[in-house]
Amino acid sequence: MRMLRGCGGTKGRRRARIPGAGPLPHGSPAALTAVTAAVALLLAACGTGATAPRRTPAPHVTRPAPHLAPAPRVVPRSAWLDDFSRHAQPPPRYDDEVVAVFVHHTDTPNGYDCADGPRIVRGLYTEQTGGRQWDDIGYNFLVDRCGTVYEGRAGGVDRPVTGAHTQGFNHRTTGIAAIGTFTAGAEVPRAMTDAIAALAAWKLGPADVDPRGTARLVSSNDLSRYPAARGAVLPALAGHRDGYATTCPGAALTARLPAVRAEAARRQGRTVSTGTPQPPRRVLRSSPPTVGDNEADRRWGT
After folding, report:
1. From CA 46, how far away is CA 262, in angstroms rounded?
2. Whether pTM exceeds 0.90
3. CB atoms closer than 10 angstroms to residue 237
4. CA torsion angle for 45, 48, 49, 51 (degrees, to 10)?
5. What is the dihedral angle through the alpha carbons of 10, 12, 17, 22, rounded to the nearest 10 degrees?
């Protein structure tokens, strides 16, 4: 009796039996006929053995890359914060991303030498942590008239640190302070506005926010321009007064913000000629504000 291998190999498989077959002389016509019949029977049961067609993979969807800008040079806290001024403070707080930037001015004299930048920033830190009893300087960054960028609030310049710079809108935003007073008639140095644009382009890039567009934020404090828990559509690169009843960052610097937005968009590699604002983003806080956030918010701007 002849045996043929079944479907799928020999291991763990039964062999096909030729019905009614007994021992046949090797090479005889009867043997060949029987084998041919068995092969036909086996192929009918198992199929032709052709490989099943492969499933066509789903087409790969290529998402547009975020408009990233290079990081500007930032002077670290260690360059301006000495052991005599430093005080103990709680760990920094973080949000999930940065979707808007608020521009401020420090309301300090303009006629300083840029070499005095570290001293000025240290003085602002001392005033805010001492006189106002904040846990740290409120601004995330500060920029002097020569375009030097200083790290402000602790936590890492490349991370979405929750600041204390715009009452009601400290979450998912970055605060950039121009060192000086930029009310109507004041000169706003080009080096300063270029540095602000570079910072804004860099911080908004990972969330792919167009600096010329808008962001939907949620107020955390009734003392802002919007009641707590109310949404607000604000410029993605805003002035302090867009979120709080103040004249900050001053009329002169406010008038320069459209140019700053355009420069920030250019640094992100966006088409400068369009200038079309992006649709508002639905932006929610990653977590409710803490007591410390609210306390800092209430003190800011008073």
Report:
1. 69
2. no
3. 31
4. -130
5. 80
